[in-house]
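Late entry, written up from scratch paper. The run itself happened at the end of the previous shift, but nothing got recorded in the book at the time, so transcribing now.
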Amino acid sequence: MISPGSRYVALGSSFAAGSGVKPRLDKASGRSQRNYAHLVAEALELDLVDVTYSGATTANVLSESQNDAPPQLGAIGPETELVTVTIGGNDLDYIGTFIRGSLMNTLARPVGLIAKRLGNRIRARVSYLKDQSEYDAAADSLTEIATQIRKSAPRSRILLVDYLTLVGPGTRPRLDVPLNEEQLPSVVMMAEGLAAAFAKAAERTDAELITASSASLDHAVGSPEPWTTGFRFVPFGGVPYHPNEAGMRAVADLIVNHLRANP
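Output as recorded:
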C-alpha cells in the first residue's frame, strides 16, 4: 500500500485535470481542486504534484512543452511512489470531434427544418472513424510514457486510468446528444479504440490498468446519474463531454479501492 506522505504525480489532459469542475486551481491548465488526483491524495494523505493540463497530448507528457508548462514527465523523480496517467484522447481528437459534430448538428437543425418544408433533407455529417494505425500510435505513446516513468521512478506504481464513457447503452441519439443514429455508433467505436490502447500499453509494461471506461457504462450521458457532462451550446456549469464532480469522485474511488485491494 502507498504510505501516507508518499509523493504522487498526476499526468494527463482535461479528463484528469478536471476542466469545468469547481473550484478551479489554475485557469491556463483548467486544473480543478476536486479532480481525481486531489481526491485520491486527500483520501490516502499523499504529497501530490499535479501537472495535468487541458488539451495535452502524449507528446506534451513525453517531450513537448505546452504553453509555459514543460513536458509533464519532468515532474517524475526517483522519490515518486505513485503515478496516474490519463492521456491520449487529444491525440485522436476524440472530444474535439464529438463537440464539433454536436455543434454542427445543432446549428443545422433550423436549416434542416426549413429544407424539410421545401421537400429537401439536410443532415450534418461527421465521421468519427479512425484508422487502426492511429489507435496503435496512441498505444505506443502510452507504452513509452509508462516506460519512461519506470526509468525515472523505479519504485513507483504506475496506474493507467482510461477515459470515462460518454456514450453508454442508454444514451439516445438526438435526445441525449445531438447526433444521429449513424454518427453515435462511431463515437462508441472511437471510445473502444482508446480503451484498447490503454489496455495494450498496460499489457506491454508493468503499469496497472484502471478501467474507468467499463465502470462508467451505466453512467454515460443520458443516464439517471451521469459521470460526464452533456453537450451545451454555451457550456453553463461545465465543459461539454467532460467528467463532472460525480465522475471525478467515481474515478478517485476506483483508484483508492484498487490500491487498498492490491497493496
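Residues 94-117 form the longest helix (24 residues).
(Scratch paper discarded after transcription.)
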